[in-house]
Write a structure and sequence with these properties.
mainly alpha, 16 helices, globular, MFS_trans_sf, MFS_dom
Length: 407
């Protein structure tokens, strides 16, 4: 699969991008139903937000387990198994008798969805390297970023015809469709001779070596913190838009979906101009945009600004994620081809672990204030900036000094 034609390359991007859609669809599709779920289960907003937290934890833990599993067993077999689990978990969510069963089923659903996320990224590294990896990942992001546009709009549309349980029945159908598509169209990309032994201690050593690699850890934390801020936005924005600004579920879906366009713009700028502007330069630009947008957003919340003043910085904030996610992934994965599944797992784990911590914080002051969301988003952007300059840039400076001494 190394020398793919342009058509085959696009087909592979569509296939892997469809797997990447599992993440945003699992997270975003039910967001317009948050207020309805609160009423139906006679529970609190924070408890419903915990269902998002458990889903994020499942997505993170699932990648930690499924990534190394795919280094041992190959990509295809684990992927198909977890798509079946996703289908069953989605049906359980649809018919959960109480909020606690629903929360537990959301964890399993997130765990199963992690298979699509982590294995699709590992397949990319199996097939590409260098700037071709960056370009293909940008193409993959173009497909995958349709999720944040389509998912909330789909959720709002489903709610116009049925109740929130219909959302999870649709997700179950998506799981079945992906299973059938993958089983018939995705070849194995990790041949047996390149797989690592089924040795738990070796897997732990692989994770240890990744965490000790200051450059890899810096890129992983940069991506982790910035996406954690976006999870805070995802968790809080349904209440901000609908409870504070009074928009309908359909209007919310449209506003939320517009930000998916921002993701596409960010990632495609990288793919289009990576031959002119380096990945590291793009990463720094993205970090600057996220911090400025986060600061403007917090000030707007403090001043109780009109809706338009809120929407604009959020658009730029989300666009910065497209830039940061594409470049940090490519730079982190570049030297990890031999353990791509494990590296992909760690890159996927940190955002969901950190996101599971930030998501409940936005509701800590109730459903009618946006200030906690603004504080969390800006704090996450600052931590991402510090991670890059404290680990990656410092490590590069040390390497430059060492090479100068050797001369």
């Amino acid at each position: 699969m190394k020398n793919l034609t342009k058509t085959k390359r696009l087909q592979l991007a569509l296939l892997l991008g469809s797997l990447g859609l599992l993440g945003p669809f699992t997270i975003d599709t039910y967001l317009p139903a948050f207020p309805t779920i609160v009423k139906e289960y006679h529970t609190s907003a924070s408890l419903v937000q915990i269902s998002l937290t458990t889903c994020l934890l499942g997505l993170g833990l699932g990648q930690l387990i499924i990534g190394p599993m795919s280094d041992v067993q190959g990509r295809r077999k684990p992927l198909l198994s977890f798509l079946i689990l996703y289908l069953l978990a989605s049906l359980t969510c649809a018919f959960a008798p109480n909020i606690y069963t629903f929360i537990g089923a959301r964890f399993i659903q997130g765990f199963a969805a992690a298979g699509g996320l982590v294995i699709s990224r590992a397949v990319v590294r199996d097939v590409y390297s260098g700037r071709e990896l960056t370009k293909f990942f940008a193409l993959l992001m173009l497909v995958g970023n349709l999720g944040p546009i389509v998912a909330p709009i789909a959720g709002g549309s489903i709610l116009a015809f049925t109740n929130w349980t219909g959302v999870f029945i649709v997700l179950a159908c998506i799981g079945l469709l992906l299973f059938l598509t993958i089983s018939g169209n995705l070849e194995e990309t990790l041949p047996k001779e390149k797989r690592i032994p089924s040795d738990f201690s070796q897997i732990l050593k692989n994770f240890g070596s990744l965490l000790k690699d200051r450059q890899f850890a810096g890129y992983a934390l940069t991506q982790g913190f910035i996406i954690a801020g976006i999870f805070a936005y995802v968790s809080g924005i349904p209440f901000v838009y609908q409870n504070i600004y009074g928009v309908s579920p359909q209007e919310f879906s449209l506003l939320f979906g517009i930000n998916g366009i921002a993701l596409i713009i960010g990632s495609q700028l990288v793919g289009r101009f990576t031959d002119v502007i380096s990945e590291r330069a793009f990463l720094k630009i993205g970090l600057m945009i996220s911090n400025v947008a986060g600061a403007v957003l917090l000030v707007a919340f403090l001043l109780k600004a009109p809706l338009l003043v809120i929407v604009v910085p959020i658009f730029f904030l989300v666009a910065s994620i497209g830039i940061i996610a594409t470049t940090s992934f490519s730079l982190a994965m570049e030297t990890q081809g031999h353990i791509a599944g494990s590296a992909s797992a760690l890159l996927g784990l940190l955002p969901f672990i950190l996101g599971s911590l930030t998501a409940p914080l936005v509701g800590i002051a109730g459903e009618y204030t946006a200030i906690p969301m603004g504080v969390v988003i800006l704090s996450a952007s600052l931590m991402a900036l510090l991670s890059y300059y404290g680990l990656v840039r410092r490590n590069l400076a040390y390497k430059l000094q060492d090479s100068t001494r050797n001369l």
